[in-house]
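Batch job 17 of 40 flagged for manual review because the log was empty.
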Amino acid sequence: MRIHSLIIASIFLVSCISCGNDDEKAYCLKHDDAYCFSFDIRQCRTDLFAGFVQEDDNIEARQSNMKIWLENQNYKIEDIKLELQVYDAVCQACDVCPTGDRYTVYAYGQKGTAYDTLNLLSVTTEDCCDIF
């Protein structure tokens, strides 16, 4: 009887573990047309969004404001993350050098030419499931 209970408990544990993986996969596949990208913030506040997203705000406010700004540029945003100081060192020049902070965006819908029209710095395509 004890072995029988142990087997049932093991089956339950394995099913719970696999449920967690399914939940993660369901999130990153939430939209069939999902795509993720990341970009750096320019020094000297020369990004197009600089007047809308204040660098001295807290992380939550910056993420929220960036989401609103991107949505105002006709992008559908599921989620956004801001990582602070991703580089050990950065160059010192306006417009071409990053501050060290980097946004990662989970978007969906038509990709368009986000990287060209928004003039973002160091845009990189990301795997949504690795980040979100």
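Reviewer: the log was empty due to a logging misconfiguration, but the result itself is present. The chain has a mean pLDDT of 81. Unflagging and moving on to job 18.
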